[in-house]
Amino acid sequence: MKYRKKPVEVEAEQLTKETIRKVYEFIDGEDCVKLNCDAAFDAWETYEKIVIEKGMELKTPESGEGTQIASIGDYVVKGYSEGLGYHFWPVKPDYFESAYDLIPKINFSGLPTGIGDLAVEESRTKRLNK
Question: What b/e sequence results for 25-64 when a residue is b if at least 16 CB atoms lie within 10 Å of its CB, and e otherwise?
Fold first, then answer.
């Protein structure tokens, strides 16, 4: 028997030395700001060094392991399930890049960014030239 992986859209951020804070905020969201994470941000440089050396710990209850480590270069993927709510897991870059395609952002015209901008500009120009 053969199987095909079901298409599913996910949110993900790649963990690099430059994106540690972005991934941290991706995981903790605005709750971190609401819960006053000043203490964490005061020690930010220390935290970055730990992540670069040892990776970022992700609580992944569905793995049965409780936590997994995202290393520099890994993608951190966000998922949702009824029993677990939002959860995150690391995916190695070679697998992620072969299994997932980037979904282009759609602008208000319904066309992929860039194409829609041209269509809107062309339409605006036609109206102005009448």
Answer: ebbeeeeeeeeeeeeeeeeeeebeeebeeebbebebeeee
d(CA 126, CA 72): 49
Same-domain pairing of 53 and 69: yes
List, for residues 22-54, the tens digit of each pLDDT value.
Answer: 888 888 775 555 444 555 566 777 888 888 888
- Is the domain of 15 the same as that of 46? yes
Asked if 15 and 75 count as a contact pair (C-beta separation under 8 A), the reply is: yes
Tell the burial category of 90 from Cβ atoms under 10 Å away from its Cβ (0-12, 13-18, 19+): buried
pLDDT digits (tens, 9 = 90+) for 100-123: 988 887 776 666 555 444 444 444
127 falls within a domain: yes
- Smallest CA-to-CA distance from 15 within 78, 87, 90 is with 90
Question: What's the length of the chain?
Answer: 130
Same domain as 28, residue 48: yes
Statement to judge: residues 107 and 95 lie in one domain: no
